[in-house]
Design brief:
Blueprint lengths: L1 E2 L1 H4 L1 H6 L3 E5 L3 H14 L3 E6 L8 H14 L4 E8 L2 H10 L3 E4 L6 H16 L4 E6 L3 E2 L8 H5 L13 H11 L3 E4 L4 E2 L11 H7 L6 E3 L7 H10 L1 E6 L1 H16 L11 H21 L4
Parallel strand pairs: 1-4, 2-3, 2-11, 3-4, 4-5, 5-6, 6-8, 7-9, 8-10, 10-11
Helix pairs in contact: 3-4, 3-12, 5-6, 8-9, 11-12
Length: 293
């Protein structure tokens, strides 16, 4: 059933686990996510990230995501991930998304507050929930972005300054009215090549200041124990994509490696191999986030 982010996380907030938010960039990823959700009986969040627009536009994938959500036997939220502007959030709302993330974290603090508050005003007027980000989520060095180590060695820059400040988080939530907050405590987007420098106690410190669901972005490469410590400390939504799609790619490669030169390769079989592998990986992630394993 199609629900808002607030609704899909109600049980998680009550019972102290985290809801998985998985990115949809094609039909097969949507099928894998919904299949895993229904098999585990857990609600999920279908993310559309603007960074995936070269793969599929929001206008094309939105009806597919919404159709899967409406027909699912578990609660499903359709969410815009890392909306880059007020206009992109409005577009998602017009297309039927039940939740949006406005990411103005690259702006100065007051700019982030002003932009987020405006999106909250618009979204709440039509019953749509809003997530925002405060702090800096690192990008692992897979060809783009920066790592905590690169930030730490930059001139006049301290990696700790990039983490979410608990007092600032309280002010931010009070002034914006945001429904969920993505916080920075050392995780990295992408395939990480060095161990993230995590400050898991910071989650508890922020939780002592504000009582709204926290979101983990950039959970790539974390251990089960690190995920579950973050959940126990207050994270209620976990964005998960890189290792899900990597599982699909690796499964396809393994299948191709096992084929003989004379074997026929049908393209329609390739997405199914990836979809099955992604579904298994998502099930494992949901169980970890739910503290079931």
């Amino acid at each position: 059933m199609l629900v808002s982010m607030k609704e899909v996380m109600e049980q998680a907030v009550k019972e102290g686990y985290a809801v998985g938010a998985f990115n949809v960039c094609n039909l097969e990823s949507a099928m894998a996510i919904i299949g895993a959700a229904e098999e585990t009986g857990k609600g999920v969040i279908l993310n559309y990230a603007q960074v995936h627009s070269p793969l599929v536009t929001m206008e094309i994938i939105a009806p597919i995501m919404l159709d899967f959500a409406r027909k699912a036997t578990v609660p499903v939220c359709v969410h815009l991930d890392h909306g880059a502007s007020i206009e992109s959030c409005i577009k998602a709302i017009q297309l039927g998304f039940t939740s949006v993330m406005i990411d103005a974290s690259a702006s100065d603090y007051e700019g982030n507050v002003a932009t987020t508050a405006e999106v909250v005003r618009l979204a709440h007027s039509v019953g749509v929930t809003v997530e925002a980000e405060l702090g800096h989520i690192f990008v692992s060095d897979n060809g783009v972005g920066e790592t905590p180590r690169q930030i730490e060695t930059a001139d006049n820059c301290n990696v700790n300054d990039m983490y979410t400040d608990p007092d600032l988080a309280k002010d931010f939530v009070t002034r914006t009215g945001v429904d969920a907050l993505a916080i920075a405590f050392g995780t990295s987007h992408g395939i990480y090549t060095q161990k993230p420098v995590l400050d898991l106690d910071r989650i508890t410190a922020i939780r002592n200041k504000i009582d709204i669901p926290f979101v983990m972005h950039g959970g790539s490469g974390l251990s089960k124990e690190e995920f579950q410590t973050a959940v126990r400390n207050g994270v209620r939504k976990i964005n998960y994509y890189t290792y899900m799609t990597l599982a699909g790619g690796r499964a396809v490669k393994a299948a191709m490696d096992q084929m003989k030169p004379e074997d026929n390769i049908f393209f329609h079989d390739i997405p199914l191999i990836a979809m099955d592998a992604m579904k298994k990986d998502i099930i494992n992630a949901i169980n970890i986030f739910s503290l079931n394993v």
